[in-house]
Specification:
The chain is of the alpha/beta class. The protein folds into 2 domains: 6-35 and 128-323, Rossmann fold; 38-126, no CATH class. 39% of the residues lie in helices and 21% in strands. It has 13 helices and 14 strands. It has a 7-stranded parallel β-sheet with strand order 3-2-1-7-8-10-12, sandwiched between helices. Helix 1 (16-23) runs parallel beside helix 3 (56-65), helix 1 crosses helix 13 (310-323) and helix 8 (175-182) runs parallel beside helix 10. The chain is globular. The chain starts with 5 loop residues before the first strand and ends with a helix. Mean pLDDT is 88; it is low at 40-50.
């Protein structure tokens, strides 16, 4: 029997499910590596109350990769009413993940048990078994800690790094994460926030080392829109430059970039208040970094926002996989 090609996708936030949903329908072995540095919203509250790995990004990936009755995923994603005091705005799935973490002693085992319960096709690996703290130094040389604080600062970031919860504690990757990267046929970064969803995984030292030595084809899915402060005026090549810099060498082989125009009057910038302008393409600057730019119409206009078309991205990834 021919082994399924192994694809590892790295990120967090709401971007990954867009391409995970079409990918899991294909005959591939998919592994999602998910950030554990989130400290906002329901995830942040649970992290502070009971000191667990923030569950929000993990919950979204579990739902995206599951094959269960839709009523189960609907319950997982349900948020309590704002009038419900302690439970206000908590997602039910976050509470379930928190309970499973206590039952099994760590987030990694908790997610594996939940993955079986939800009939997940593939693997979901928190990048670390412990909650991590994201730090950023901005271009003005000020420093902030905490994913929510960094996002809301709306300042241009120079670089980021992660630490453990305790002062001086070195971040440790889950061994399965490193093994998945080393055995992969393809590594996919994003889509998602560069500095707060993708890079918090990449800068875990064991992860960046594995990314430098893996023989897998490495693909970056460039964002469609820039983020306020964080990546204002960034081209696809500048996103790539930051990614390679945090990995420690030029490892990315392909950059998938959208060249379809986002209409000025379509996006609701109040609803999607973190985004700024459409990302511009710079093929020459991409190729200088040793990567091949794949430009095309990968745009999906919906819900007053600009998103990746998951099916088109999936087809492009399969095409790259077949060429390598």
């Amino acid at each position: 029997m021919i082994n399924k090609p192994k694809i590892v996708i790295i990120g967090g936030g709401s971007g990954l499910p867009v391409i995970i949903k079409p990918l899991i329908k294909k005959n591939i072995d998919l592994t999602a590596i998910v950030t554990v540095a989130d400290d906002g919203g329901s995830s942040g509250l649970l992290r502070n109350y009971i000191n667990i790995v923030p569950p929000g990004d993990i919950r979204n990936i579990l739902v995206a990769m599951s094959h269960v009755d839709p009523s189960i995923t609907e319950v997982m994603q349900y948020r309590f009413n704002a009038k419900d005091d302690f439970f206000a705005k908590h997602a039910v799935g976050n509470l379930i993940i928190a309970a499973m973490t206590e039952m099994h002693g760590n987030i990694f085992d908790a997610v594996q048990h939940l993955a079986r319960f939800m009939h997940v096709h593939g693997q979901i690996y928190p990048v670390s078994n412990e909650p991590l703290i994201l730090h950023a130094e901005f271009k003005d040389r000020t420093v902030l800690a905490g994913e929510a604080e960094i996002t809301h600062a709306h300042k241009t970031i120079d670089h980021v790094w992660v630490t453990g919860d305790e002062p001086g504690e070195e971040p440790k990757a889950a061994p399965e994460v490193v093994e998945a990267i080393l055995n992969a046929d393809m590594i996919v970064y994003g889509p998602g926030s560069l500095f707060t969803s993708i890079l918090p995984n990449v800068v875990v030292p064991e992860v960046s080392e594995a990314l430098r030595i893996t023989t897998a084809a490495q693909v970056y899915i460039a964002n469609i829109m820039t983020q306020k402060g964080e990546t204002d005026a960034y081209t696809d090549a500048q996103h790539l430059l930051a990614l390679n810099a945090h990995i420690g060498q030029q490892t990315i082989d392909y950059v998938i970039s959208n060249n379809a125009v986002v209409p000025n009057d379509f996006v609701d910038f109040q609803k999607w208040d973190e985004i700024s302008n459409q990302v511009k393409l710079d093929k020459a600057a991409v190729e200088v970094q040793g990567a091949h730019q794949i430009a095309g119409d990968f745009l999906s206009l919906r819900d007053a926002g600009a998103f990746h078309d998951g099916e088109k991205i999936m087809n492009q990834l399969i095409k790259i996989l077949e060429q390598n």
